[in-house]
Design goal:
Elements: E1 13-17, E2 25-31, E3 41-43, H1 52-59
The structure holds zinc ion (ZN).
C-alpha cells in the first residue's frame, strides 16, 4: 500500500511524468490534495496511476515524514 501524503495525509495520490527521452521518463508521486510532490525517478516505461505503489517505493515516498 502507498502511504498517505506526509503533509496533508491525503490518499488522493497520482503519478506525474515529464516527456521522455532516450533514458526514460522522469516520474514522481504527486498529491492532488495539497499539490506537493515527491522526488523524481527515471523510469524506462510510461507509468500511470496503476504504477503508483511502485513509484512510491522507488522514490522513497513512503519514507517521507518518518
Ligand atoms: Zn498532500
Amino acid at each position: 500500500m502507498s502511504k498517505p501524503c506526509p503533509f496533508c495525509n491525503s490518499l488522493d495520490l497520482g503519478v506525474s511524468r515529464l516527456d521522455g527521452d532516450r533514458e526514460g521518463y522522469p516520474t514522481q508521486v504527486l498529491c492532488y490534495n495539497c499539490g506537493c510532490n515527491g522526488p523524481w525517478v527515471y523510469l524506462k516505461y510510461v507509468a500511470d496511476r496503476s504504477c503508483l505503489e511502485h513509484v512510491c517505493e522507488l522514490t522513497g515516498w513512503n519514507k517521507r515524514g518518518e
